[in-house]
Amino acid sequence: xxxxxxxxxxxxxxxxxxxxxxxxxxxxxxxxxxxxxxxxxxxxxxxxxxxxxxxxxxxxxxxxxxxxxxxxxxxxxxxxxxxxxxxxxxxxxxxxxxxxxxxxxxxxxxxxxxxxxxxxxxxxxxxxxxxxxxxxxxxxxxxxxxxxxxxxxxxxxxxxxxxxxxxxxxxxxxxxxxxxxxxxxxxxxxxxxxxxxxxxxxxxxxxxxxxxxxxxxxxxxxxxxxxxxxxxxxxxxxxxxxxxxxxxxxxxxxxxxxxxxxxxxxxxxxxxxxxxxxxxxxxxxxxxxxxxxxxxx
Length: 297
Prior knowledge:
Blueprint: H1 8-24, H2 28-41, H3 47-66, H4 70-77, H5 89-108, H6 112-125, H7 129-145, H8 149-165, H9 172-187, H10 191-206, H11 213-232, H12 236-252, H13 261-276, H14 280-290
């Protein structure tokens, strides 16, 4: 059976999956094109189609977030609401996903309190283990932004140890929980624990290839975590070596645009590191370079 011979809701489901795969590979523009084309062709007429329409709008919202088009992402949220009371099981899936994506959007906009509310609400509703790990990753990061690193550590530690005990210490879920755990340790100046966690994640990255968008971002965050530890311990040559490695990764990975915030952060580190190494002209050049990049929310 050809794809366009499938029932409407199945065609929508296929495109939803394809759009997500394209986004994971870094091609959010092509992901959007697929969604636009299918929604222009297939009307939303039943509850299953309405559910998938919501999934596709959330996929578009995630694409917009990657482009930092936050107003556009918000507009996609507003285009979908539940149709039944109480909501159907299909609709509840979209509600949970909507809370997750809204939480991420609020975080990127600097509204950490609202991000915490959205993600905590979603965590209470999510029954599946894999999805809960996904949300914990974002919620722990938000706790760190709110200067609640101890709460982030508490949220993560039991789950990390559980995955380790089950032999899943090379899994994507383990890696994604261990990274914000390292951040929580860093925020509390538990540098030994933070370094151990980051080096363990590094071993996982060294053993894998074909990193998706989230992997690419996490890999650079990992290296920047090592830079921060070296910074706190005044090991400037090590900090420079790690920061240069992070910069190379941003040039290698498709996730990072020319004006990406993380590249500006690396140059900020270079400003301090070169100054501490007595290389004042390099420090000045690095500081000038920071002006070319996004400054964050």
